[in-house]
Design goal:
homodimer, 3 strands, Four Helix Bundle (Hemerythrin (Met), subunit A), about 5% strand, DNA-binding
DNA sequence: ATCCTCAATAATGTCGACAATTCGGCAAGG
DNA sequence: CCTTGCCGAATTGTCGACATTATTGAGGAT
């Protein structure tokens, strides 16, 4: 009857380590080392690496081991682009299907987001942002699309911290979320899709800005 | 230097067996049996099952083995819905990026499709259909979206045979493809996205028809 | 007759060991 | 000085054996 928590599963441990940035892109993942580090057998680690490879978080080359997959700038833009069209679809669906409880949950998140923006807490806002979007996925009742979007999000997470750094981004993002929330509350599918689309177009722009800024900084501070 | 072909890989063998329908939905996949059947070790089969589980073609339950994942009617519709928005995006992109070679390839496929329709060869047409869409994915130059769409297609493949059975479907489908091709040739992104969207909306309708027909038939021929 | 218990069985999960492969350095040759 | 071939360390790929877990069926109690 003793079922150990999921956190003991090498897959979840490794996944967390990669997504949280403890393991860096292109870092080699030696099976034996990982096995000892997280207290598991090499077999379990191997299975976890296969899953993460299929998921796109790890790159697995035959006879050459595994490494944390490096998501290039261009690929990050692609990911965000796909996320945009999928979330737009989900927003439309959510508008017609969202329950009273769903709207209530969204309202709570909106209230907290306003607080964070007022307090100038960018990273707290960012976390609430994730919650907001996830709530919409749930409301849409579309497991297939939700799975894909969740996977994409985990791949692009490395870039999402940088987008929060843009001046005035939080305030603008908050206004966009208000529009999405209003459309959902009104059960207006067209408006919800349009608002979400506009929001994610902005996110894409911000991402381009972040990438560009990074390049400039790198050029100015060589070595 | 002897590199055995990919077909020897248990993953590809199993995948092919599932997608081609040799292994039926909900059929149990006993590791030892498969290992002997395809001449591989249990370890390799195990790794293949993990990959296929992550891919959505196999369902893996802890301590309870693997079975071919059964895609429900509702899930098939969800898959097609997601495929529609992704392919619409890819069509738009392809319109602005397609090369002369890409257009030439599409033209060739169109010619053959017209032949098949004229000959009343539904399944030959269906195969060309797949080629047509894949060519567009390639032209779009969007690996991230292409990967996702390819994965979705393999999951929904069981239903695609049924859609070809609808009377007059091939002729209508051909006209829709002509519209898509024309938009791509004109490098008109808006038109390409719209044409693809309309096409896949039709496919979705046909899928609903196929599922409905199946249910009626099942009721009329019980047991 | 029905339900419960419990052993028998079959399959999966895990571990250790060994074979196969890659990669680095190093020496010989051009 | 650069290239080529080879050896050895490190790592992955594979196999077999065993432990663990679910399932099944018989037998007995109610």
């Amino acid at each position: 009857m003793k079922r150990r928590p999921v956190r003991a599963d090498p897959y979840h441990k490794l996944r967390e380590a990669i997504v949280s940035g403890q393991l860096h892109p292109n870092e080699r993942l030696v099976e034996a080392a990982i096995a000892e580090r997280i207290g598991a057998g090499r077999t379990a680690v191997r299975a976890a690496l296969v899953r993460l490879d299929q998921e796109g978080l790890v790159e697995l080359e035959r006879n050459r081991g595994a490494r944390v997959r490096h998501i290039s700038d261009g690929e990050a833009l692609e990911i965000e682009e796909v996320r945009a069209v999928l979330e737009a679809m989900l927003a439309r669906r959510a508008a017609t299907r969202v329950s009273a409880e769903g709207l209530s949950a969204l309202r709570q998140v909106m209230i907290q987001m306003r607080e964070r923006v007022a307090a100038g807490d960018s990273i707290g806002y960012s976390e609430l942002n994730a919650t907001f979007h996830q709530t919409i996925w749930t409301a849409a009742g579309h497991p297939t699309a939700s799975r894909l979007v969740a996977g994409l999000k985990s791949q692009g997470i490395r870039f999402q911290y940088q987008t929060a750094l843009r001046p005035g981004r939080a305030e603008r993002s908050l206004r966009e979320h208000e529009a999405i929330f209003a459309a959902l509350k009104a059960h207006d599918g067209d408006a919800a899709e349009a608002a979400m689309r506009e929001h994610l177009a902005e996110v894409l722009d911000t991402l381009r800005w972040a990438i560009d800024t990074q390049h400039r900084t790198a050029r100015w501070l060589p070595g």
